[in-house]
Amino acid sequence: MQFIKTDSVVGEIFHFQQQHWHLLPQRAIFWEEEKTLIVSDMHLGKAAHFRKAGIAVPAGIEQEDLFRLQQLITRYLPQRIIIVGDMFHSTENNDVQYFRVWRQQFANIFINLVKGNHDIMPDEVYEQLQIQVNTTLTISGIHFIHEPCEDHNGFQYTFSGHFHPAFVMQGAGKQRLRLPCFYFGPHCGILPAFGHFTGSATLDPAADDPVFVIAGKSIIRAQ
Amino acid sequence: MQQHTGGWKVIHQWLEGNEFKPFKFQEDAWKAYLQGKSGIVNAPTGFGKTFSLFLGVLIAWIDAHPKEYTRKTKNGLQLLWITPLRALAKDIARAMEAVLKELNIPWQVGIRSGDTSLAARAAQKKQMPEILLITPESLHLLLAQKEYPNLFKHLHTVVVDEWHELIGSKRGVMVELGLSRLKGLRKEQLKVWGISATIGNLDEALEVLLGPYHNDGLIIRAKLKKNIALKSVIPHEIENYPWAGHLGIKMLPQALPVIHDSQTTLIFTNTRSQSEIWYQALLKEDPMLAGALALHHGSIDMELRIWVEEALHNGILKAVVCTASLDLGVDFRPVDSVIQVGSPKGVARFLQRAGRSGHQPGAVSKIFFLPTHALELVEAAALKAAMEEELIESRMPVLLAYDVLLQYLMTLAVSDGFHAAEIWEEVRQTFCYQHITEDEWLWLLSFLTTGGEALGSYDEFRKVEREGDFFICRSRMMAMRHRLHIGTIVSDAMLKVKFMTGGYIGVIEESFISRLQPGDSFTLAGRNLEFTLIKDMTVLVRKSNSKRSIVPSYQGGRIPLSSNLGRMLRQKFNEALSGKSRDPELIALQPLFQLQESLSHIPKDNELLIEKINTKDGYHLFVYPFEGRLVHEVMAALLAYRLSLIQPITFSIAMNDYGFELLSDQPIPLTQENAKQLFTTDNLLIELQTSVNATEMARRKFRDIAVIAGLIFQGYPGKHKANRHLQSSASLLFNVFKDYDPQNLLLKQAFNEAFFYQMEEARLRETLERIAVSKIVITTPQRLTPFCFPIKVDSLRDTMTSEKLEDRIKKLITTND
User: Fold this and answer.
1) How many inter-chain contacts (A to B, CB under 8 Å) are there?
2) Which whole number is the average pLDDT over B399-409?
3) Do the Cβ atoms of A59 and B459 come within 8 Å?
4) Does the beta-carbon distance from A196 to B736 stay under 8 Å?
5) A contacts of B810 (beta carbons < 8 Å)
6) Among A107-116, B111-120, B158-167, which is the least confidently predicted range?
7) What are the extents of the domains in chain B?
């Protein structure tokens, strides 16, 4: 099967820590050397959780999120997916069942979940879904942990989520834009939230930390 | 004849015994009431409008029970008295109880509001008092109780007090829906009366109260006029560059003599933050006021507010700094002066506030207008003229508020459940929902039962169950949550503020507190407080000795200029220009006008002034239609959009009540030649929808809607944490609805509200039509003018763009480098 890169979606290849990181506007990173797709804060089942409680947010958000992940998988053919925490939003609900069906399409792909504060389902559930759960994960010197670390933790570099980072850009004429972003701090990088039914927090990075914003269908380096 | 009935005689004797002589409108109201009619009594405050209906009810009661009216007890609820403010209820109850006692009628008067104790509620459920004073929210809470129809078995009269205050809001819709249910229960036996101050559309107010299909409603007008003396406090020194940033504090020394010369003064400010600042500044300026000065606004602890109100009654306060929280009609007899700080932005509001002083019939109401910046003096002159011509604003009733209807249907679902066909008939008879379609109704029902579009077997939406035509909520959890939720028509999440050691201070917007770091100081209820932490929806603080503290800015404090006042304002600028004006306000402003004229121009009645100015910030375009902030916001977006069709360009937009500004990093392509075309009414609706702002405005409107419709779960008191997984922001919900469920009626409502309330589409059209026949004057001043200065430094901002997102960002980056 042949995959043609569509010109409507443009990623950015960031050469960093001697590795190639494809920063993707679908709110994910493809790690070229390890053939690994990295996402964070999917919050699957959040809408279903709300609906179960009688709060009528639109159904189908999770399906769209998983469809986006599916497109990334067919495009980059990863061997592994790392989810840097908060994969499911809450306790088990029918969206988990939906995921189970979805998972069967890609049974050969290894899924690592780095446990986040929302990942509270019993271990058996993850086992059934063929998801390997760890509190942290280290691959080729790159460390993954849900909550960003403040100080250097001894690893070559760390990736986190949890924060749902957004970046505010300002310019002449008092213009202002707030966009989800990838952030690369001195020791720790933060991924944008993958799920669409998630809020975001404004980041206040040091002036020389690389920040890439997601601007519609492209990735732009903001600083 | 009616006059000879026993009841009428009893009441007359009582009045004579107290040396009261009824006003003609009161007797007219009694007559109409005794004939079984419904309607509205229109009278200014301070003339006994309460008695015009209350005594009517008593006359009818005595007539019906001439022998035993002094003995008959436990009669069940006879009169339901709906009032917008809890504080009013207490006052009215007191007055009613005094009358009942003197007449030997053993009726109970009860109050039902958020403050009513559990014990009192239980007692009421067992035996309803004959008269119940209630807020619109508490009425809905009664409808959320099991077997609620029993409570209303004997009800024959509903009075809606201060109807003018309710009619333009969603609380008014709550009243309409509540009435529709009561009418459904009591049919023809129910008489409905409103009490209203004068508004521009009193006839419509009657339609809204009784429903569009009523046929015997009437309006009883008291032909009484309140004497109002308006005096402007003219600054000793007129600044040429007026700036509202200091909130009138500079004028404070000139307010002190008014306070000293009066018995009690109410100082009205337009926002809660401004009232906090004034309170602090007054104490600093005159420490002798300590103990005799109080603060009153909607975020202050209820008990403290009640204390302030009591103290006002007793005359132990010299002055109270307040906001709209004291607008409404409680009688504070000791108050003999009112100071209005900054423009009240509307004639009706100004009259209302003026009426807070000299409350005795016939007394003169004294009100002092204290401008926060020099240009506001023109508004004072305009107010004076508008009052003389009795140009009082209309209150536009709310139409098709789907959010309130959803809340109401849920209310009925958690009590006894409802039959859709019956409720549909009742709802369609209301003014608000007279044009609701059957499709919309079915959508609302399915939104409650299946959560909108259901997605087959995976969906677990649960709220209301459907059994044929019958809808009921059987989940106790959900019922409890709904009851807690009724009446939360607060847009921003409010957090309680408490001392670490205990002791409740008031409430504060979450958005404000989220910007603070622990250790920061802020002001609330006149105290300096140090923010420590947030726990369980409560902000914990300790006393602060910090000299510098932040004053919270509250949303919703900004009221736009009404169109009546805008028109007067343009007339006054015209007069100022002629140099013939006798208004002291305009004479004082002559130096400022001269500077404006020499730098730029003062627009005449038939002119629209546009100023193009370049500064280091970029290229500014200032336009002055004098139509109020809301209209300007939309006009600015529209003009920005039309300009952006000429070339790719990004604007930042700012506005105040006099005009608006477009600011860009490139020259703005507006010329004498294309100006008229840029303000045309052609394609208005389509272009408004296309302009980015429609979405942003709808997003802002959606916040309220989401809360009212029950989409935002605010948590149980003290149980905040356990439900964190159900928290989401209105903005996020708006995004997901827009992306995943664009047909959602609540989303549609948000856009409608944005168009008709926020954008004031009709008024915008009128303004554009006026501009079409006006002369457009474009000037290019070398520096900022007195007119543009307040817009530049003191206004809200927004963005409008036709550039691609990617291009904008690239540009932002280059300018930042």
Assistant:
1) 144
2) 95
3) yes
4) yes
5) 220
6) B111-120
7) 6-221, 228-389, 402-490, 494-557, 600-816
Q: Which residues of chain B are within 8 Å of residue A47 when distances are taken between CB atoms?
A: 736
Give the residue from chain A lying closest to B733, CA to CA: A57
Does B812 sit within 8 Å of A174, measured CB to CB?
A: no
Residues paired with residue B23 on neighbouring β-strands, in sequence order: none
Q: Tell the residue number behind the tokens 């280059």, with chain if given.
A: B814
The fold adopted by the segment(s) B228-389 is Rossmann fold (3.40.50)
Using a CB-CB distance cutoff of 8 angstroms, which residues of chain A are in contact with residue B652? Answer: 173-175
pLDDT (tens digit, 9 = 90+) per residue, B478-509?
898 888 878 554 434 567 788 888 777 877 76
Question: Is B288 buried (19+), middle (13-18) or exposed (0-12) by CB count in 10 A?
Answer: exposed
**Structural domains of chain A in order of their starting residue, each with its CATH number:** 18-221 (3.60.21)
Collapsing DSSP to helix, strand or coil, B443 comes out as helix
pLDDT number for residue B562? 81
**Dihedral sign, Cα of residue B552, residue B556, residue B561, residue B562:** negative
User: What is d(CA B416, CA B770) in angstroms, rounded to the nearest whole number?
Assistant: 54
Domains B6-221 and B402-490 share a fold: no
Cα separation of B722 and B484, whole Å?
A: 16
**Cβ–Cβ gap A175/B799 under 8 Å:** yes
The reported pLDDT for the residue numbered B553 is 47
With beta carbons under 8 A apart, name residues in chain B contacting A67.
Answer: none
Please give the structure tokens belonging to residue A39.
């996402």
Query: What is the average pLDDT value for chain A, to the nearest integer?
Result: 87
CA distance A202 to chain B (A): 11
- The confidence score (pLDDT) of residue B408 equals 96
Q: How far is the C-alpha of B664 from the C-alpha of B654, rounded, in Å?
A: 12
Q: What is the pLDDT of residue B797?
A: 53
| pLDDT(B58) > 60 | yes
Can you tell me the mean pLDDT for B105-116?
88
Inter-chain residue contact B726 with A93, CB threshold 8 Å: no
Say whether pLDDT at B654 is over 50: yes
Contact between B744 and A53 using a beta-carbon 8 Å cutoff? no
Closest residue, chain A, to B817 (C-alpha) = A223
Interface probe for A, chosen from B655, B714, B736 (most Cβ of A below 10 Å), is: B736
Which percentage of chain B shows pLDDT scores above 70?
86
Q: Are B332 and B261 in contact (CB under 8 A)?
A: no
Sorted by sequence, the CB contacts under 8 Å of residue B715 that are 6+ apart come out as: B537, B723, B727
DSSP structure string for A113-126 = EE--TT--S-HHHH
Give the CA radius of gyration of chain B: 28
Neighbours of A68 (CB within 10 A): 18
Q: How far apart are CA B182 and CA B176, in angstroms?
A: 10
CATH code, B402-490: 1.10.10
Among A58, A93, A213, beta carbon nearest to B460: A93
Share of chain B above pLDDT 90, in %: 35
pTM, two decimals, is 0.79
Contact assignment for A222 to B732 by CB distance below 8 Å: no
Distance from CA of B458 to the nearest CA of A (A): 5
Average pLDDT for B644-657:
84
ipTM, two decimals, is 0.77
Q: Which CATH superfamily is domain B6-221 in?
A: P-loop containing nucleotide triphosphate hydrolases (3.40.50.300)
At residue B537, the pLDDT reads 63
Rounded to the nearest angstrom, the minimum Cα separation between B448 and chain A is 8
Specify the long-range contacts of residues B612-615, CB closer than 8 Å, at least 24 apart: B612/B668, B612/B670, B612/B778, B612/B779, B612/B780, B613/B780, B613/B781, B613/B783, B613/B784, B613/B785, B613/B788, B615/B784
Nearest to B451 among A51, A170, A172 (CB): A51
